[in-house]
Specification:
The chain is of the alpha/beta class. Strands 2-1-3-4-5 form a five-stranded mixed sheet. Strand 1, helix 9 and strand 2 form a beta-alpha-beta unit. The two termini are 83 Å apart.
Length: 388
Amino acid sequence: MNTISLPIRSAGIRGMLCLLACILLWGCRSGEKLYNKGKYDNAVTAFVKKLQRKPQDATALQLLPEAYRQAQKMHEDRVNNLLRSNNQLKWEPIRNEYRTMQRLYDAIHSSPAALKIVTPKDYSNAITGALENAAETRYDRGTALMQRGDKASARKAYDEFGAALKLIPNYRDAQARKDDAFQAGVVYVVVSEVDVRSPYFQFSADQFRDYLVRSLQQRNVNRFVVFYDERTARNENLRPDQYIALRFQDFVVGQTYVDRARREVSKEIVTSTTKDTTGKTINTYTTVRATIVTTKTTVESRGLLDYQIADISNGKILRSDRIPGSYTWFNQFATYTGDSRALSEADMASIGGRDLPPPPPQELFMEFTRPIYNQLEKDLRDYYAYID
């Protein structure tokens, strides 16, 4: 038993050693390839990993110092170019450059062999300084925007204070200023009572408006836009920034068309059978008749909705459009008189149904306004989603 298992173990060990040698060789070659391609950050990382596995690797020991020097030069050149630029937000990319270099610093410190041949620079203080400068820049930009006194600038200031807090949580009083910017940037939009020019349909029109406002509120179209219906705004003494006027124009509800079609049908049928003296069958035929009456009732409802979005401060019309809508109710039934034997299979299939009354006018109104509602809601969502 021992004489058989020994070669197998030896072969397994040789295979593992061969695999390990391949890995080490590949790691060395990959680092060298990265170096030759000018990818110095990745080359440094590859050489450090190689030295962690094989501290005496000649290629890694030879190329790591130059790879680090080139990486450091590349990033510091970028930093210097940014420092000379007029970009107000330069401290954020500067911080990113320093952070990349600090990762190389940490990587080299993880390998004693790498640390013997390279003395990496610690950028932790530079990162902290760039971070503080970046947060201060965002804070100052937000403050300057708030001083403009308009809503669009307040919304931009909200983003600036948010960016400062993302860089440094609890930075100065940025949270309080961000809250102030939000309140200053909110646009209050009031949706008017619907002008329907018919008291009979006013309740349905009010439902149309209520559904619209509720949907816009629940969808959170834009965090800076708050929708109110006109009654609520009036009760709360709200001073709106924008006003949406709604008016139904040229609408017709319940226009009815009735079409009755009368069709005569007949068929010859066998009524009796006899045989002659030779035994041959003789059929006696009779013609049977019936009358089919088909009644088709069509009820059409249609109309137009005009809407306008106005800026309360200056009366400027920001958007306007006209949306059409229609709804057709249809009912069909058929009856017959006469002999049912005159009817074909198709005729029998068409017989049936009953004379149904159309829906009440309020329901027809809601049906023809449904496509109008869908289009109007989409228009308003699209418009207010991207308010600047």
